[in-house]
Amino acid sequence: MLPSESRLRRREDFATAVRRGRRAGRPLLVVHLRAGSTDPHTPGESVPQARAGFVVSKAVGIAVIRNLVKRRLRHLMRDRLDQLPAGSLVVVRALPGAGEADHDQLARDLDTALQRLLGGAPRCSGPPGDTPRSPGRGPGGSAR
């Protein structure tokens, strides 16, 4: 379980991470990271540890499924908080497919998103200008 002091609880903290942080999207979740920010609510204290919050809407599924997804995400973040800079705020927003995904799929998407946000993974592995396109798209990438 994620320790209580490592959880985001205030609306302002969620808003700060989402509005002022960087974002990485994956098929099952979106991760917002506000790296190394200091907590204005604790003046005079040293840099606080990284904290995480979770958003799982009704689009994910019924209450039982939403709670299962939250528990899985909390468990996954517990092991990854030490990789984040001190004072970071992380918001993990589950997308509708997360309710049907298993633990390993959520872990892969979370790891990939965090690596991208921390600068560890490139966005495209091919040569410059060689971006994958959807079938039926022209050379400009737009539908004809």
Automatic annotation (TrEMBL):
Keywords: Endonuclease, Hydrolase, Nuclease, RNA-binding, tRNA processing
Family designation: Belongs to the RnpA family.
Ranges where the record places region Disordered: 118-144
Record function comment: RNaseP catalyzes the removal of the 5'-leader sequence from pre-tRNA to produce the mature 5'-terminus. It can also cleave other RNA substrates such as 4.5S RNA. The protein component plays an auxiliary but essential role in vivo by binding to the 5'-leader sequence and broadening the substrate specificity of the ribozyme.
PROSITE patterns: RIBONUCLEASE_P
One BP term from GO: tRNA 5'-leader removal
Organism field: Streptomyces eurocidicus (Streptoverticillium eurocidicus)
Amino acid composition bias (Low complexity), ranges on this chain: 126-136
Protein name per UniProt: Ribonuclease P protein component
Root EC class: hydrolase
Keyword Hydrolase: yes
Substrates-to-products reaction catalysed: Endonucleolytic cleavage of RNA, removing 5'-extranucleotides from tRNA precursor
GO cellular-component term (any): ribonuclease P complex
MF term (GO), any: 3'-tRNA processing endoribonuclease activity
E.C. no: 3.1.26.5
InterPro entries in alphabetical order: Ribosomal_Su5_D2-typ_SF, Ribsml_uS5_D2-typ_fold_subgr, RNase_P, RNase_P_CS
Subunit text: Consists of a catalytic RNA component (M1 or rnpB) and a protein subunit.
